[in-house]
Amino acid sequence: MADAPRSLVNKCDFPQDLTEARQNPQRLIDGFNSQWMLRLKWIFATMLLIFCFGFCVLLLNLQDFCTICGKIFYSPSLRSATVRETFQLRPKIQCERNPPFLVLLVTTTHSQKEERNVIRQTWGKERLIGDKLVSSYFLLGAGTNPHLQGELIEESNTYNDIIQRDFIDTYYNLTLKTIMGVEWICTYCPQTTFVMKTDTDMFVNTLYLVELLIKKNQTTDFFTGSLRLDDGPVRDINSKWYINEKEFPGTKYPPFCSGTGYVFSVDVAQKIQNVSSTVPFFKLEDVFVGMCLEKVKINLQNLHTEPTFHIYKKPFTVCNYRKLVTSHGVRPRELYLYWEALRRSRDVQC
């Protein structure tokens, strides 16, 4: 019988050959025992670390723990929402040749490909409304899944509408994502007249929005949306929007517009960018933008005498959706059906 391979023998601390093993079986047993004891020690140490980690989570409330984890993945500058790294992906456009009237900036995540595709077929499709050009772009941070990133690169090559930067794409980095969009506007498309920031779960009636903006006839120092004039920090630790007293010691936020959808003139974009690095970082994006507006003394305005920006889902009827700007919480299939229903019923009287 041939000897066992030397590499295997040494790893298991076996005797030098099988003959020696037969003559000294206790040594063979001791070798196995020492290896198992070493493995058990590593298993015990790993389980102890997991237990300690879990115990820390229990000691901290869940929201504070998520906040700490989020800060680990913030961009290098935690005290400033301005991110100066090179864009990983950005559209190849020349706004000066064909300036848009309205640019839609839509915050999204890597996994929301279906939502992006439906938006491209509906309210986000580049179109002329009258003689006003409307275009849309999607804002993302860096993902952790190489496969999804590869798909995103293909998507960018196909549609030329992806804006991405190298910060981890988490909910508490939404402020960075929004300021990234503002900076992109200021750098690559300052020729637009208006900018809208919104989300992928929104229905946006771009036709009615353009109509109202034309009627408003204010192209500077303008900011509108669903006005939040009396909101304060949520102290309920179980809330998604929980803010502790260290993050915001006051009882009332400065006026802001709900992050579900707000619209501003392009000069305001430049003002926000200019002050964003001097405003302490705040993880709630819409409140952070409100802090910037307060610093540059921009007052919020209503776009219409009737509510048009809805932060909740508005029940669908053609007449309801014809006279709104946003409705929140609309799923992709619903979005497509609502848009098609509006498109086919332009002659319906309300």
From TrEMBL:
This is Hexosyltransferase. It comes from Xenopus tropicalis. GO terms for cellular component: Golgi membrane. GO terms for molecular function: N-acetyl-beta-D-glucosaminide beta-(1,3)-galactosyltransferase activity. InterPro entries: Glyco_trans_31. The chain crosses the membrane at residues 42-62. It is a single-pass type II membrane protein. Pfam families: Galactosyl_T. Pathway: Protein modification; protein glycosylation. It catalyses: a globoside Gb4Cer (d18:1(4E)) + UDP-alpha-D-galactose = a globoside GalGb4Cer (d18:1(4E)) + UDP + H(+). GO terms for biological process: lipid metabolic process; protein O-linked glycosylation. It is found in: Golgi apparatus membrane. Its EC number is 2.4.1.-.
